[in-house]
Structure formats: structure tokens, C-alpha cells
């Protein structure tokens, strides 16, 4: 005799998950019990968060210090015109709770860095890097490495996207092994532009991989880097190797 | 002559060996900051670039970090 984990309402709400042999009732309970940190609530974070909220991920910690601007609405589809001028994390919290009122959403509205970043990474089951600059990407990578927290990193500009995942519980290769000595770039969404579905594709894949990870499904993406070419709909996948001279993770 | 051919981001590229990965990147003036180089589907750590010999037929891919999100 099996003991039911979910109540009747949850069994209805998440019935399409329960049909999936790889998720089922145990996987759904894992989602309900999970805690995910999203660093950045722009084109990546706002889209990924919607899927996590809808899927019933119990606790979301969302970090961003920006307010919503008119130029964000073309791709950051979680937000509404009525949210213009509000802190993104406040607007996102309201919208996410309207998708799923049983969530806990905690907001961080100042720059997440240093000890606070490390503490938030430590408290999370998995971290989604949804940020928009190299300094934050290196800092999130370091915090995840130091706390052995799995990292699902997405990026997008113009028609191009990137997805890479690091399971710091078991591997030593990190974002800085992959992209050493990176400097802030001239090309970003504000200068080079971005098409909504390109960043949305990467965000959706971050959400997919987060849900799979929480439900304890395997993924070929751990330790792999993928580049998405949105013009030609082409993907390139390469295996990441650790750099013995990496300033972040070399022992 | 004594040239070999590699695939550079999917395009044939001829070079005269011996040549290391670093030498090729230098010759082509490739920005190396925030750059990942993969050969035959596997990223080569930057610490190995100067020692890595280029050989006939290998597939080299250059990726630059995207920061946006």
C-alpha cells in the first residue's frame, strides 16, 4: 500500500506531472520541497521563474536590483505595463504568486554579492544564473563552487544563446574554466539587441533542467556547454574540461 | 606544399605545421579573453593552448562568452 504524498488539490493541479513516469508523485513532492535561487530577473529569470512557479517549486528566491523599464516588456513577459517603474523582484513576486499562490517567494532587491551571495547559494538546492554581466557570472560561479551548489547558467544576446551546467557536488570544472579572463562586453542586450524568444528559449531550458534536477532525473548537460544559433536553429554542444590553472576552482 | 587542413567553425582552414593552438589564435587575431576553444567536441583549457599541436582534419570551434540575460 502506497502512502499518498499529495493532497487532492495538488494531485489535480499537478496531474500532468504525475503522468510522467520520471516525475510522478515523489518527483512532485521533491518540487514542492525544493528551493531555487534565481540571480537576475530580466529576460532569463522572469521566464524561468514562471515555469518553476507553475510547476510547484516550493520556494523561489529572486534577486535583482533593477526597476522595470519600458524596453524590458518586449521580452520579459512575466511583467505587465502596470509594473513599469516597480522593482522587478516586487512585480515578479506578485505575478508569480498569481500563478501559484502556494509558493514562497523571497525577494532580494540589492546587488547579491559577497557573503550574502554565498549564503543564498548555500541555502538553495540549485542556482539559476540569469544575470546580465560577467562580474556577476564569475561571482555566482564562485559562490556555487564554494558551497557545492549545482549551477544552471543561461545567457543570450541578439540571436545567440548559451547554456551550461556545473554540478559542483561532484565536478571541478567551472564557468571560469570554460571562459577564463572574461571582461565586460560591448555587446549586451542594451547595445546589440535581443529577440524575446531567443532569451526565452534559454530560460525555458534552464527551467527544464532545474525541474529535472530537482526530480532527480539525469541530464547530459552537466559538464556540457551548448551554443544556440537562433538564426539557423542550430545547436553546438561541447564537453567542458577543468582548467588546472583556473583561479576559481584549481586546487 | 606541406600544409594541413582543419575545420575552423565549420569552414576549411589551411595551415603549415607545426603550429600550436596558441599560435593559430594569435595568427588569426582571435580575442582570447572570455573565449572557449573546443577541439573535436571538447573544450581545451587555456592552460593547454600553447602546447596543443594542430593536426590534419581536427575540428576547432571558437566560442565567446555571452553575458546578457
Summarize the structure.
The complex is a heterodimer of chains A (251) and B (69). By secondary structure, chain A is α/β, with parallel strands linked by helices.
Task: Report what the structure shows.
Chain A: Residues 14-248 form the THIF-type NAD/FAD binding fold domain. The complex is a heterodimer of chains A (251) and B (69). Chain A has 251 residues and is of the alpha/beta class. Chain A has one domain: NAD(P)-binding Rossmann-like Domain (Rossmann fold, 3-Layer(aba) Sandwich), CATH 3.40.50. Helices cover 37% and strands 18% of the residues of chain A. Chain A has ten helices and eight strands. An eight-stranded mixed β-sheet of chain A has the order 3-2-1-4-5-6-7-8, with helices on both faces. Chain A is globular and about 50 Å long. The N and C termini of chain A lie far apart (49 Å). The mean pLDDT of chain A is 96. Chain B is mainly beta and 69 residues long. Chain B has one domain (4-64): Roll (Ubiquitin-like (UB roll)). Chain B has one helix at residues 21-27; strands spanning 4-8, 11-15, 35-39, 42-43, 59-64. In chain B, a hairpin with a 2-residue loop joins strand 1 and strand 2. The longest helix of chain B is centred in the middle third of the chain and has 7 residues, at 21-27. Chain B is globular and about 45 Å long. In chain B, 22% of the residues are buried. The interface between A and B is medium-sized, with 48 and 20 residues.
Order of adjacent strands in the largest pleated sheet of chain A: 3-2-1-4-5-6-7-8
What are the segments of chain B in which pLDDT stays under 50 over at least 5 consecutive residues?
none
Order of helices and strands of chain B: EEHEEE
Number of beta-strand segments of chain A: 8
Helix content of chain A: 25-40%
Strands in their spatial order, largest beta sheet of chain B: 2-1-5-3-4
Q: What do the pLDDT scores of chain A average to?
A: 96
Task: From the 3D structure, determine the CATH topology of chain B.
Answer: Ubiquitin-like (UB roll)
Family (chain A): Belongs to the HesA/MoeB/ThiF family.
GO molecular function (chain A): nucleotidyltransferase activity; sulfotransferase activity; thiosulfate-cyanide sulfurtransferase activity; ubiquitin-like modifier activating enzyme activity
InterPro entries (chain A): ThiF/MoeB/HesA, ThiF_NAD_FAD-bd, Ubiquitin-activating_enz
Protein name (chain A): HesA/MoeB/ThiF family protein
Amino acid at each position: 500500500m502506497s502512502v499518498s504524498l499529495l493532497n487532492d488539490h495538488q494531485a489535480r493541479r499537478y496531474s500532468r506531472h504525475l503522468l510522467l513516469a520520471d516525475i510522478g508523485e515523489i518527483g512532485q513532492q521533491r518540487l514542492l520541497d525544493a528551493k531555487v535561487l534565481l540571480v537576475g530577473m530580466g529576460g532569463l529569470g522572469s521566464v524561468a521563474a514562471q515555469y518553476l512557479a507553475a510547476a510547484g517549486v516550493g520556494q523561489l528566491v529572486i534577486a535583482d536590483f533593477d526597476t522595470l523599464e519600458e524596453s524590458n516588456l518586449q521580452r520579459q513577459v512575466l511583467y505587465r505595463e502596470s509594473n513599469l517603474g516597480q522593482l522587478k523582484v516586487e512585480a515578479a513576486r506578485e505575478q508569480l504568486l498569481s500563478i501559484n499562490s502556494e509558493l514562497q517567494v523571497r525577494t532580494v532587491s540589492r546587488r547579491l554579492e559577497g557573503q550574502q551571495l554565498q549564503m543564498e547559494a548555500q541555502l538553495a538546492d540549485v542556482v539559476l544564473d540569469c544575470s546580465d554581466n560577467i562580474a556577476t557570472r564569475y561571482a555566482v560561479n564562485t559562490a556555487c563552487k564554494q558551497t557545492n551548489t549545482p549551477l544552471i547558467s543561461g545567457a543570450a544576446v541578439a540571436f545567440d544563446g548559451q547554456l551550461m551546467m556545473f554540478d559542483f557536488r561532484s565536478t571541478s570544472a567551472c564557468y571560469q574554466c570554460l571562459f577564463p579572463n572574461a571582461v565586460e562586453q560591448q555587446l549586451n542586450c542594451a547595445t546589440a539587441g535581443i529577440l524575446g524568444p531567443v532569451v526565452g528559449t534559454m530560460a525555458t531550458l534552464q527551467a527544464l533542467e532545474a525541474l529535472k534536477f530537482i526530480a532527480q532525473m539525469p541530464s547530459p548537460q552537466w559538464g556540457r556547454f551548448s551554443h544556440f544559433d537562433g538564426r539557423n536553429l542550430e545547436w553546438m554542444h561541447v564537453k567542458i574540461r577543468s582548467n588546472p590553472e583556473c583561479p576559481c576552482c584549481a586546487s | 606544399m606541406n600544409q594541413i587542413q582543419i575545420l575552423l567553425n565549420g569552414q576549411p582552414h589551411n595551415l603549415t605545421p607545426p603550429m600550436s593552438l596558441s599560435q593559430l589564435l594569435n595568427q588569426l587575431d582571435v580575442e582570447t579573453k572570455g573565449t572557449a576553444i573546443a577541439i573535436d567536441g571538447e573544450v581545451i583549457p587555456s592552460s593547454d593552448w600553447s602546447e596543443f599541436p594542430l593536426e590534419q582534419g581536427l575540428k576547432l570551434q571558437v566560442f565567446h562568452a555571452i553575458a546578457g540575460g
